[in-house]
């Protein structure tokens, strides 16, 4: 056997061995490289921990399969890629299958199947499809059912109440995929939900005014509405033979009260905090409403007197009796006159509606879209230095304040304001307080009340947290009272879509206070939509099509000529 032949055989076996070794390494190890800037193909550490901790089989049935337009195909492909990624970390504890809900040719059977999906909690969409016969409506179910044993949770993959341009709508849905599936699996694994409650009875926002955030919270927590009404048992339960009290709720939300709190109600709230309860305060520093302003063209914004201000001062935050005017603000639509019998509407910047752009690296506001506020006051951190105070939201550099009582006049839109004069930049409007709080009633209780076993008075809390927000409207979703219909939180009627990140901010706030930071990290992941320039595509379509056809062929020809030349030169005798 010639030396050349022996060398060729040895090289063959070496290459074969390398292939088998590489195959073995890849079979026993798991390595993926994600070179995208936003790590779109990488799971967050919280999701990885969740999947690696699965002990039982989880089945995902996805009903987004069929002949759909490209945008929906993108959602289908993104869902499949994500589920494959989840499965790879789950030690084969996660299984998934894609099902076409419309594949049955029997109309009755198909409609029965549709009904079963709706009963399971999935929402269908009528999708207009262009065919040779014209435009036709097609029913699709852009959702999935996630099951663990006998428990099953629906997951809506297309998250939109108002129709947006397809590319934007699909990109938002792709952004939410990891959160939706991780959230569903977490809910299947959790046996008991934490409890939170909206306080009412003092003119707080009604149920429909906070309906959107309530529905989102109910996906993870048990949500109630509670009237304190001087009842010491409204927020706590007596245990251990009336000698010890325990909070009934894990978190309270005080959303835009308009009436004074009684001493008993304040005491009950104070003691809820002393027992480690968490609170989100959404309190207006002054009383100003757009409805009364539109009716009279002007109004006087007066300080709110809720009797909560001194309590908050004791805990470490002072809501000032002022109004923030911010150059970075939302517009309002005003009638500038009639043209015939038609009102002429025009948009104006409304300085009393500051748009709060999160800049803090804190997880509550990280990657959250700008937040809409209305007639907002400023907040100062005060009091005990042991209380950690973190500013979550603040106004822009171009900010001024009006001290209450303040005249608010619609005519301000006709007089552009110079925000470089007397500016008060970066006024805090949302603050996180953390620490051991002292009771507001520490020095004011009679001995018989302080020492009563049934009351179980505590003068200092264990370590706990609260968030103070100086605008109650941040949590209020738009409402069409005539139709008894609410719009999503952050929805802008002029734009016809969700513009602001109010819901994400509040959901993050609740998750943080309830030590559910894994949900925050998953929700904050975003994927950038990189759309093609449609005009450029049309103009250069033929050129790039030709390039894509010819370049691969030319490369193959060049490689063939090169290899042929190299072989002739190498083996030339």
Describe this structure in words.
The chain is of the alpha+beta class and 573 residues long. The chain has two domains: 39-188, Glutaredoxin; 193-523, 3-Layer(aba) Sandwich (Rossmann fold). The protein contains 13 helices and 29 strands. The strands form ten sheets. A seven-stranded mixed beta sheet has the order 8-7-11-12-25-24-21. Helix 3 links the parallel strand 1 (58-62) and strand 2. Helix 11 packs antiparallel against helix 12 (517-523). The longest helix has 37 residues, at 534-570. Mean pLDDT is 84; it is low at 161-165.
Structure, briefly:
The radius of gyration is 30 Å and the shape is globular. The protein has 573 residues and is of the alpha+beta class.
How do the strands and helices of this protein lay out in sequence?
Layout lengths: L2 H26 L16 H8 L5 E5 L7 H20 L4 E5 L8 H13 L5 E7 L2 E7 L2 E6 L2 E6 L9 H24 L5 E6 L10 H8 L3 E6 L8 E4 L4 E4 L3 E5 L7 H12 L3 E5 L3 E2 L2 H7 L1 E6 L5 H7 L1 E3 L2 E5 L2 E11 L2 E15 L14 E2 L6 E3 L6 E7 L4 E5 L2 E4 L18 E8 L11 H4 L13 E6 L9 E2 L4 E2 L4 E2 L4 E2 L3 H12 L3 H7 L10 H37 L3
């Amino acid at each position: 056997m010639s030396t050349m032949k022996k060398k060729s055989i040895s090289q063959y076996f070496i290459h074969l061995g390398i292939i088998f070794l590489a195959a073995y390494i890849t079979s026993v190890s798991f390595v993926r490289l994600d070179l995208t800037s936003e790590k779109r193909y990488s799971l967050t550490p919280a999701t990885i921990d969740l999947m690696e901790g699965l002990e039982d089989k989880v089945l995902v049935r996805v009903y987004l399969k069929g002949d759909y337009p490209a945008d929906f195909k993108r959602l289908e492909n993104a869902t499949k890629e994500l589920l494959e990624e989840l499965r790879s970390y789950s030690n084969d504890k996660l299984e998934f299958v894609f099902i076409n809900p419309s594949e049955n040719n029997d109309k009755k059977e198909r409609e029965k199947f549709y009904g079963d999906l709706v009963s399971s909690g999935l929402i269908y969409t009528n999708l207009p499809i262009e065919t040779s016969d014209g435009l036709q409506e097609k029913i699709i179910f852009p959702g999935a059912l996630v099951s663990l044993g006998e428990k099953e949770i629906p997951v809506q993959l297309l998250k939109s109440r108002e129709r947006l341009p397809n590319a934007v709508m699909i990109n938002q849905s792709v952004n939410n995929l990891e959160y939706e599936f991780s959230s569903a699996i977490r809910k299947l694994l959790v046996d008991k939900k934490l409890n939170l409650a909206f306080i009412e009875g003092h003119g707080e926002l009604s149920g429909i005014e906070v309906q959107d955030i309530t529905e989102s919270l109910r996906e993870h927590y048990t949500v109630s509405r509670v009237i304190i009404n001087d009842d010491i048992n409204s927020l706590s339960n007596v245990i251990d033979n009336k000698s010890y009290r325990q909070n009934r709720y894990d978190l309270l939300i005080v959303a835009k009260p308009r009436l004074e709190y009684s001493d008993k109600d304040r005491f009950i709230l104070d003691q809820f905090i002393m027992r480690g309860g968490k609170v989100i305060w959404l309190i207006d520093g002054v009383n100003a409403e757009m409805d009364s302003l539109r009716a009279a063209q002007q109004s006087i914004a007066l300080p709110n007197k809720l009797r909560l201000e001194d309590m908050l001062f004791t805990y470490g935050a002072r809501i000032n009796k002022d109004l923030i005017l911010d150059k970075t603000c939302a517009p309002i639509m005003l009638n500038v006159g009639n043209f015939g019998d038609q009102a002429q509407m025009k948009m104006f910047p409304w300085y009393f509606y500051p748009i709060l752009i999160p800049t803090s690296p804190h997880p509550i506001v990280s990657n959250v879209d700008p937040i809409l506020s209305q007639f907002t006051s400023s907040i100062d951190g005060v009091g005990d230095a042991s209380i950690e105070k973190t500013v979550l939201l603040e106004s822009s550099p171009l900010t001024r304040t009006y001290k209450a009582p303040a005249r608010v006049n619609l005519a301000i839109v006709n007089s552009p304001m110079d925000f470089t004069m007397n500016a008060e930049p970066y006024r805090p409007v949302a603050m996180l307080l953390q620490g051991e709080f002292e009771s507001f009633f520490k020095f004011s209780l009679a001995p018989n009340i302080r020492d009563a076993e049934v009351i179980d008075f505590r003068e200092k809390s264990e370590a706990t947290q609260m968030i103070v927000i100086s605008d109650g409207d941040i949590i209020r979703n738009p409402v069409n009272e005539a139709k008894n219909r609410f719009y999503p939180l952050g929805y802008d009627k002029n734009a016809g879509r969700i513009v602001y990140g109010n819901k994400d901010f509040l959901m993050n706030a609740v998750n943080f206070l309830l030590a559910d930071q894994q949900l925050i990290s998953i929700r904050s992941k975003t994927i950038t939509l990189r759309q093609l320039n449609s005009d450029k595509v049309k103009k250069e379509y033929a050129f790039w099509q030709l390039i894509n056809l010819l370049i691969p062929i030319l490369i193959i020809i060049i490689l063939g000529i090169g290899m042929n030349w190299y072989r002739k030169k190498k083996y030339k005798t």
